[in-house]
Amino acid sequence: MKLCFLVGSMAISGGTYVIVQHAAYLRDHGFEVTLAVQEPFSALTLAWHDEAPALRCIPIVEAKKEHFDLVIATWWKTVFELSHFQAKQYAYFVQSIESNFYPEEEVPLRFLVETTYRFPILYVTEATWIQQYLAEKFGQAAALVRNGIRKDIYTPSGPAIAPRNLARPPRILVEGHFGVSFKNTALSIRLAREAGARDIWVLTGSPVSWLPGVNRVFSQVPMIKTAQIYRSCDILVKLSTVEGMFGPPLEIFHCGGTAIVFDVTGHDEYIVNGVNACVISCGNADRVVSILQRLLSDRDTLSQLQQGALQTATAWPSWEESSAQFHQWVAGCLQGSAPDRSVLVAMTEQAFADYSHDEQLRLAQNPAIIRRHKLSVLASRFPRSVIRKVKQLEAIGEVALGRRTAY
């Protein structure tokens, strides 16, 4: 059977991580697996995940020339590519409600994203809240396959960059991209400093080498080496306000640490406040500081949370178990009949016609938006080296000058 995942980007991200894990498992269990990628990529782009270089990754334009048994969209933009593929069946792996990625004022764009959840195709997701959202708002019966974890990599014992030391204050880890407002990465650093943390590390997928007030920065680290960082840190501060089912807290659980998180969607798949981590109402910066101050000074409470986190980790399924469930879902998909491609074509054309009309009205009412778009397009044409420097400066600015409120 020929299976194709439609992927937005092969760069470091939690969403791509999940796709690669399922794709590698299916390849090892008899499928011819292709990853059709929208953004340009190279061998260097794939190097962060140990399985990615061994997968068949091709530009999406090339993949459209082939025929597949099942094509799976994995990002809202890829849903609109489905009608260009010849396949026996079409599906959608929904990893988050991606309309939440965009500001509320971008009404036409958010509506366009939500349109993808109306397509008459098969659905699978990774979190209970997404499954319920799709059922209640769009009448879609999505299968649920929770993400697994690499038990061969994320373990409490093993190499560490700098092992934990009870004689020293607890070490704080902040994880996340910069330049993505809802990740609140810079805010996490600011609040850790405000709480009095003396040793702050940052793990990021952004091209950053130095940040003010941060002891060590780990940028674009290969996945197989991240556990060494987790095993060196006591507390992960992860304050994103939009998630599907985020992985970093679970990863540090497996490596002997605990976490402080907002009550973001998906946290309740495995995080229990006061048992394995601390859960704080979204946006409550003062509470983050007070809880972190307590954990920095109260080793007993910190140790109890870390023990609870290890118990959660022990009970959590591996990727082999998770991907076996995904395999079962794929097998079920192949038993059904596909929708007429003409329906997918018509829905795609109508979605973009509605978006174009509504967005033109929005831009006419606010010309300043057009100027910002033009600047963004111009900036994207700069050489890669220049873009990296700009991103470094932007990250420094976020940490040094960013506001004390969550996005």
Automatic annotation (TrEMBL):
One of its GO terms (biological process) is lipopolysaccharide biosynthetic process. The keyword Lipid biosynthesis does not apply. Residues 218-309 form the Glycosyl transferase family domain. It comes from the Bacteria. Pfam families: Glycos_transf_1. GO terms for molecular function: glycosyltransferase activity. This is Glycosyl transferase family 1. It comes from Nitrosomonas communis. The lineage of its organism: Bacteria, Pseudomonadati, Pseudomonadota, Betaproteobacteria, Nitrosomonadales.
